[in-house]
Amino acid sequence: MSPFELAQPASLEEALALLDRDDTDVRPMGGGTALMLMMKAAILRPRRLVSLRGLGPDYRAIALRPDGELRIGALATLSSLEHSGDVRRAAPAICRAMRRLSNVRVRNVATVGGNLAHADPHMDLPPLLAALDARVVAAGASCTRTIPVAELIAGYYETVLDKDELIVELAVPAQAGWRSNYLKITTRSADDWPALGVAVNLRLDGGRVRESRLFVGAATDRPTRLAQAEAVLAGQPLEEAVLRRAAEAAAEEVECIGDDQGSAAYKKELLRVNLARAIAPLAEAR
């Protein structure tokens, strides 16, 4: 590992001042779980790391607002999401997904903001949060802006964040009336990287789909919305034939990518089979 400077600011303002919009060798660090692995492999050689661990407790807080909106500080660990009563009440699909996201040692250290900013296409959280219509609050030296998670990741390890911006908060809107699920398919151990992640979130009216948000991850270079599959579901009951048509539409519309988790053709077939499996339990959910 190459030598580097470790800066440890005590406030958000100090942290932002240490970042450099034009210098890609300066990197912020939350939990550091992915960053350290990339540095050990010599994929990254930053000259300065800006540790965010010294920021105040507000950036680790998880709070459920009276209107049902869930607010999560960017430095909240994945483990804290897994065990939070507020998260379980507001968005139980997040808690369920955490149980198979890597291992407990990683979840105890990795942060929500770091997980999203890392933009690895194999992450479990981005497609699920996109399906929940979540958004991040990003702070820069001159302004603060809100970005939908569905628009945050621009490509393979790329986000729309500027080099001098930090994710400071995640907001998940009230999910009353919505039913959500995340299905992770792995080719190795249950907590390994997914070969495919399918996130579904829908509202029913009289047993028929009133609105849906379907996203796929791991088979694509970013969370990808399944618009054609949503169109198939619109106004339809969650019957086997309907789900089969939606799955076919999803497989046709998505351009999958191959990697060491499986070929593009294999992942397309996984999507064709597993979209229906991700949606079906929601027909009985209450």
Structure in words:
The chain folds into 2 domains: 59-172, Uridine Diphospho-n-acetylenolpyruvylglucosamine Reductase, domain 3 (2-Layer Sandwich), CATH 3.30.465; 182-283, Enolase-like, domain 1. The longest helix is centred in the last third of the chain and has 16 residues, at 264-279. The protein has a 5-stranded antiparallel β-sheet with strand order 4-5-10-6-7. Strands 11-12-13-14 form a 4-stranded antiparallel β-sheet, with helices on both faces. The termini are far apart. Strand 4 (62-64) and strand 5 (70-73) form a beta hairpin. By secondary structure, it is α+β, with helices and mostly antiparallel strands. It contains 12 helices and 14 strands. Helix 10 (227-233) packs antiparallel against helix 11 (240-253) and helix 11 packs antiparallel against helix 12 (264-279).
Task: Write a compact overview of the structure shown.
With 286 residues, the protein is α+β, with helices and mostly antiparallel strands. The protein has helices at residues 12-18, 33-40, 78-83, 85-90, 92-98, 104-107, 112-118, 125-131, 149-152, 227-233, 240-253, 264-279, and strands at 5-7, 26-29, 48-51, 62-64, 70-73, 135-139, 144-148, 153-155, 158-159, 166-172, 179-185, 196-205, 208-217, 224-225.
- Tell me what the CATH architecture of the largest domain is: 2-Layer Sandwich
Estimate the helix proportion, in percent: 25-40%
Quick one: overall form?
Answer: globular
> Helix tally?
12
Low-confidence stretches: none
For this structure, what is the CATH class of the largest domain? Answer: Alpha Beta
CATH topology of the largest domain: Uridine Diphospho-n-acetylenolpyruvylglucosamine Reductase, domain 3
Tell me about the largest β-sheet.
Answer: 5 strands, antiparallel
Number of DSSP strand runs: 14
Which strands sit side by side, in order, in the main sheet? Answer: 4-5-10-6-7
